[in-house]
Structure formats: C-alpha cells, structure tokens
Structure to design on (387 residues):
C-alpha cells in the first residue's frame, strides 16, 4: 500500500564547481543590504570567508559583517552573542558559511531576530510564530545537510543536552553548493561528516515516517557515499569529494521531510555530554543500531546492503540485512572512527546517556521500539565495539 506523504522543500539549490559566483545575484534577489556572515574560525582560517566577502564586495555589497564565534556543537550562548551582534549591525540577510554548526547558529540567530525571547523557548516542532530574515547557506562540510533542512540543533549548556528546533521557517532560502569549498576539507572531517550523512540517509529511509520520494533519494545517497568515501578520504580525489557534498545535501533532503531515529538519539546524547563531534558520535553508534533494527525491516536493510556495495545475490534477505551493519562497522574501521571507549565515554554515565536518548524527540520513529533499557545495552555494545 502506497504511503500518504507531503513533500515540501522551500530551499533553492544552486550546485556546481565555482557556484559561489552566484552568491551576489542570490543576495540581491533576497534584498540583502546589511549582510551578516555566520561562520567559525576554522572555516575562516581555510580562506573560505575571504572568498565569500570578495564575491559580495564585487557584487556591490558594502554592509558585510562577520560573526565567527561558532564552535562545533554550537551552544545557546553563541546564538545569543550572534543575535546581539546581528541587532547591532541591523542585519537583514544572513549568510551561513561552514558546516552544520555555523548553519544552525545562523538559524538560531534568525529565530531570535524574527521572534525575540530565548532560543530554548523554541525547542520542539513548529514553535516559531514569525519567519526569520532570509538565509543563504553555503556548506563547507559534507555531512549535516542543514543547508536544506528546517532544523537547528543547539546545545543547551544548562542541561548538557542538544535541543532540536524544527520548523519549515528555518529552511534556508538558498543553498549554494560549491565543490571547490570542500576540496581542501581535511580527511578526518570528510570521514566524520560523510558518516553523518550516511546515518541521515539510513535513518531517514528506515524511520517510521519515511516516504517514497525520500526513500529513492536515500538509497542514491547511500550508494554515492559508499562508492566515494574511501577515495575521498585516502585518495584526495576532487570528484569523490564533490559526490560526497551532493550526497550530504541529498541525505539532508531526506531528513528534512522525514526524521532521524535512534542513532541520532544516542549520538546527540553523546554530543550534549561530551561535546563529541557530531559525525563521530553518529558513526560510532550506527552499526550497533543497524544490527538492532535490521530484523524490524529486513527488506529495507537488505536494500541498504546492496547500496553499500555488498554482493547480496547468494544471501537470504535476513543475511543481507544483518550484513549491512557489518559493512558499516568495517567502514568505521577503515576510516579509524573511534569507539565509545576511545571517545572517553565513562561507563558510569551510560545510564544517563540512555535516558537522554530515550527523551530525544526522534525516539518514537525508530523502526524498532527502544526504551532506556535497550539504549543502555546499545551504548554498552558500542563501547565494547561489538554489534
Ligand atoms: P562543524 O560545522 O561542527 O565543523 C567541524 C569542523 O570542521 C570545524 O572545526 C570547522 O572549522 C571545520 N571545517 C568546516 N569546513 C571546513 C573546510 N572546508 N576546511 C577546513 N575546515 C573546515 O561540523 P558539521 O559536522 O558539519 O556540523 C555538526 C553540527 O551540525 C552538529 O551540532 C550537529 O548536531 C548539527 N546538525 C544539524 C542538522 C540540521 O539539520 N540542522 C543535521 C545534522 C547535524
């Protein structure tokens, strides 16, 4: 039986080598006057922000301001600081340049410009009363897909918890994907952020709110990642990195319309407590959750196995489904993704982590029921490196 679905992607996507040259005309269409670039110091040091500013200046924009106080796993206080600066410069267009952390901080700043109050008030779904100013997202990692999603993930320092804000009003107006911007991405960041994209494609495909349009996109994204990730990380191959950038955005489209599931519930618990890089957190959890979920949707996990490049012809569907989890475990080993013990997770924190995972709003859509009891077992398995 075909599922009912609704697909709404308000973001215009401009993709291609040198795509940054489209920025001035996009900024003009959005009536940008005082432009605030939201970024972080690593992206700035990579020379990317200078290129963005040059394009804007050459396009005739004079009011260009930079806020670069964003850290990985961006926090509520960074959003507040950015908001104060945005008010000071009377920003009427936001341009996020960076990975998910910069893009989500720009979204947080935009929420406060449009709605006021404290960012924590908007946790949950559809809490925004008013729109934010227009936002152009220029991703420089290959993972989060935040450039096309209506989500912002911000760490609430008081609760040591990554809060999620979901609202279609958070979708960037324009996403500019320029493959030149990921060409110099350090291999460890390619590895971590591509594994994040893989977890989005897999979770968006298997979760209870999946839909036919995104299923097709997810399988293509999984295939693109499996085919390109090792070459991009170890071969420094331009084309492979460009394909991963595309895959990261496609996986973002998948979760923008569906949801994530238990991998993110656990990964975000880790990020909130230990400030673990988001891609690493998800990658280290992904195989164990796949092994747990596989029997709940053997058909889908068997298809994932095929897209991962496994020769499933002589396997039963069940064997193929389980093989998908082993393939991702091998991928983690090849990419030197650290285990939970290497990340520094403490055994005495695991119960709290399990409770935080259960409290995550994506828990209910995991294909197999999970409570804190099962989460505790999954955390222990990931800690020991077994699936
Ligand atoms: P990130 O933005 O935290 O960046 C990681 C590091 O990479 C930073 O130190 C940055 O300086 C560096 N970097 C980025 N681009 C670079 C480049 N081209 N060259 C050199 N260095 C570069 O990483 P991320 O994984 O993209 O984002 C993670 C955040 O996104 C997490 O907080 C996560 O929760 C969030 N997220 C959001 C969504 C969403 O839909 N909003 C989805 C998934 C994840």
């Amino acid at each position: 039986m075909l599922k009912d679905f609704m697909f709404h992607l308000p973001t215009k996507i401009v993709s291609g080598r040198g795509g940054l040259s489209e920025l001035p005309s996009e900024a003009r269409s959005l009536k940008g006057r005082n432009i605030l670039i939201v970024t972080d110091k690593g992206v700035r040091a990579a020379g990317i922000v200078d290129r963005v500013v040059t394009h804007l200046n050459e396009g005739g924009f004079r009011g260009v301001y930079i806020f670069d106080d964003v850290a990985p796993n961006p926090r509520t206080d960074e959003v507040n600081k950015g908001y104060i600066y945005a008010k000071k410069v009377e920003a009427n267009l936001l341009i996020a340049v960076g990975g998910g952390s910069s893009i989500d901080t720009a979204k947080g700043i935009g929420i406060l410009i449009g709605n006021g109050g404290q960012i924590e008030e908007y946790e949950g779904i559809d809490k925004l009363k008013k729109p934010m100013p227009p936002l152009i997202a220029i991703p420089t990692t290959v993972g989060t897909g935040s450039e096309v999603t209506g989500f912002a993930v911000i760490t609430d320092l008081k609760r040591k918890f990554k809060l999620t804000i979901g609202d279609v009003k958070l979708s960037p107006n324009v996403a500019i994907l320029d493959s030149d911007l990921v060409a110099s991405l350090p291999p460890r960041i390619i590895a971590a952020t591509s594994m994040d994209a893989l977890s989005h494609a897999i979770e968006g495909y298997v979760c209870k709110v999946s839909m036919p349009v995104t299923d097709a996109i997810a399988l293509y994204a999984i295939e693109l990642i499996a085919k390109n990730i090792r070459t991009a990380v170890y071969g420094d191959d331009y084309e492979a990195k460009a394909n991963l950038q595309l895959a990261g955005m496609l996986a973002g489209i998948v979760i923008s319309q569906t949801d994530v599931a238990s991998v993110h519930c656990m990964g975000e618990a880790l990020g909130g407590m230990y400030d673990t890089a988001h891609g690493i957190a998800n990658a280290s959890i992904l195989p164990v959750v796949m092994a747990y979920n596989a029997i709940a949707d053997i058909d889908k996990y068997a298809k994932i196995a095929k897209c991962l490049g496994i020769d499933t012809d002589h396997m039963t569907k069940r064997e193929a489904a389980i093989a998908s989890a082993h393939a991702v475990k091998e991928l983690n080993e090849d990419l030197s993704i650290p285990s939970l013990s290497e990340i520094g997770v403490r055994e005495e924190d695991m119960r709290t982590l399990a409770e935080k995972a259960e409290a995550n709003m994506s828990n209910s859509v995991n294909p197999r029921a999970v409570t804190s009891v099962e989460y505790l077992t999954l955390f222990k398995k990931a800690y020991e490196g077994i699936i």
